């Protein structure tokens, strides 16, 4: 079993950058497919980005493609979400998640119920 702890959230101005971290303990993250999701007040949880177990493939939602980057540092057992050119609509609680299964397509990777472990989330607020 893996435990996930997010950090790096905060208040940022539109057009700025922020890097979220998801530190894992208990198991190595290379054993898991990883994902970032977000949820804004009054809205459904939304897929943001995913990384395959071997790190060879990434998927992004259309709303963040070209602005956000998901990556993994195996030595630190940490997954990151680099957020660039942020917009007010990016305001949400961001959570990382780990899945024991290997994803072969974005359809699987973007389905929150395919993930087994979740962090507690970190708040990101983008001011206009």
Helix content: under 10%
Strand elements, count = 11
Low-confidence stretches: none
- The helix count comes to 1
Give the overall shape, derived from the CA principal axes: globular
- Strand percent estimate: over 45%
Overall mean pLDDT score? 95
- Span from first to last CA? 40 Å
Q: Over the alpha carbons, how many angstroms does the gyration radius reach?
A: 13 Å
Label the structural class.
Answer: mainly beta
Order of helices and strands: EEEEEEEEEHEE
How can the largest sheet be summarized? 7 strands, mixed
Mind sketching the topology for me?
Elements: E1 3-7, E2 10-13, E3 18-25, E4 33-39, E5 46-51, E6 58-60, E7 68-73, E8 78-83, E9 92-99, H1 106-109, E10 117-118, E11 122-127
Parallel strand pairs: 2-11
Antiparallel strand pairs: 1-3, 3-8, 4-5, 4-9, 5-6, 7-8, 9-10, 9-11
Task: Give an overview of the whole structure.
There is one protein chain. It is built from one helix and eleven strands. The chain is mainly beta. The strands form two sheets. Strands 2, 4, 5, 6, 9, 10 and 11 form a seven-stranded mixed sheet that branches. The longest helix has 4 residues, at 106-109. It starts with a strand and ends with a strand.
């Amino acid at each position: 079993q893996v435990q996930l702890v997010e950090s790096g959230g905060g208040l940022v101005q539109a057009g700025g950058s922020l890097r979220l971290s998801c530190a894992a303990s208990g198991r190595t993250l290379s054993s898991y497919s990883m994902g970032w999701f977000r949820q804004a007040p009054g809205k459904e949880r939304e897929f943001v980005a995913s990384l395959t177990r071997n790190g060879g493939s990434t998927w992004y939602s259309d709303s963040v493609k070209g602005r956000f980057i998901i990556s993994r540092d195996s030595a630190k057992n940490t997954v990151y979400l680099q957020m660039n050119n942020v917009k007010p609509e990016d305001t949400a609680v961001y959570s990382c998640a780990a899945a024991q299964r290997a994803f072969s397509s974005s359809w699987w990777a973007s389905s929150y119920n395919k993930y087994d472990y979740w962090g507690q989330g970190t708040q990101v607020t983008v001011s206009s």
